[in-house]
Amino acid sequence: MSRAKKFAKGAILFAFAALFVFLLFVPLPQTVGAAAEEEDVVWQDGTRETLSYSEAFSMLAGAEGGDVLLESEGRTGRVAQGEAFAAVNAALSDGELAMLLIVGSSSFSRLGRAALFLEHGSTVYYAGEAFRYTGSRVERSASEAARRVVLSDGSLPAGYLASVGASELVLTAAAEFSAADLVGSRVTSARAVLPYLAEGEAVYLRTAGGTRLLAALPLLTSLEVAPCAYADRGALVPCGSLVSLTLPFAGSALHFGSETEGMFAWLFLTKSYDVPETLKSVKITGGSLIAHCFYACPDIEEIDVCGLDPAQISPLAFRDALGLLTLHTPRADVVLPAEGFESHIAPCGCTVYTRRGKS
């Protein structure tokens, strides 16, 4: 079993174990004729059914909006809970600190409280310290494992996402987030509110000067960065397994301020350049390529810069791509990293260089 599957299985087991502990303090009702608790369910096909609490609980699948979700034999059912339930469910989903501090759900039905706990009990809300939803309110918690981490305010301790085994990350407007938070983690999905954006498995920050790439999820093998104006130094450091990468520019921006910022490896720069050995294919769709742009990238085999202005490509841009096998470029007078390349003109008008004996 892979580490990712182990983390996912562990998070699921944690959620159900925590729900079991919660239910120790919320005993099942005694079924005594008309006094028994009943739940009115509307199934996805429109049929309605009245279930006992114990029957409904055995089908519990979580909460969505103002409803408790049930699942049975491939069917999804809803038990309406009302606007107050929807507001608490939204607060627990979004993780806004001000709302979390006033969350209370003791007035809900036992099925409603159990659904909220199943949905959010494996979530940690971090705001200088860890908080969890207990089934009635949000309280401080010593967090050892979490499926989801909501960064409600401030920053995370170093290595926090990795230490709790989180697979989901939520960023609020008050979060202080960087690529370093994802290093070593198993996060596979992210959600964010402005000024943060989570798009295409990457996280961005909307600023007055334009959208900025902050980070990408760590387990990706392929990534296409959305159009943006800037990229943080080391934004892709968490991505140690990348095989293919498409970027709107090489380095830090379409227009950068220093030679270092114009290097492709800027995206993998911490104390040193750490471009993953797995990265084999790179496509750049805009900006300019400086001399020695691909320094510290000896394992890249394929580079495609079709569509760039030839005048914005230095003849020495590819000189250091020592493992290069194929180059697609609109400039025909580039210096290649080795001898033994042959070339042809592509239908787009670019020159395609291929190392002899390689395809």
Spans of at least 5 consecutive residues with low confidence: 1-35
Instruction: Estimate the strand proportion.
Output: 25-35%
C-alpha termini separation:
35 Å
Specify the structural class. Answer: alpha/beta
* Helical content band: 10-25%
Shape: elongated
- Number of E strands: 22
Overall pLDDT, averaged? 89
Q: What is the string of SSEs from the N terminus onward?
A: HEEHEEEHHHEEEEHEEEEEEEEEEEEE
Radius of gyration: 26 Å
Largest sheet: 7 strands, mixed
Number of helices: 6
**Strand order within the widest sheet?**
15-17-18-19-20-22-21
Any descriptors?
seven-stranded mixed sheet; disordered N terminus; 22 strands; 359 residues; six-stranded mixed sheet; 6 helices; elongated; single chain; alpha/beta
General description of the model:
- This protein is of the alpha/beta class and 359 residues long.
- Helix content is 17%, strand content 27%.
- It has helices at 3-24, 53-58, 83-94, 97-100, 110-120, 160-164; strands at 38-43, 48-52, 60-64, 67-72, 75-80, 123-126, 130-133, 138-140, 148-151, 168-171, 189-192, 196-199, 202-207, 210-216, 222-224, 230-231, 244-247, 281-284, 302-304, 326-329, 341-345, 351-355.
- The strands form four sheets. The protein has a seven-stranded mixed β-sheet with strand order 15-17-18-19-20-22-21, with no helix packed on it. Strands 8-7-6-9-10-11 form a six-stranded mixed β-sheet.
- Strand 7 (130-133) and strand 8 form a beta hairpin.
- The chain starts with a helix and ends with a strand.
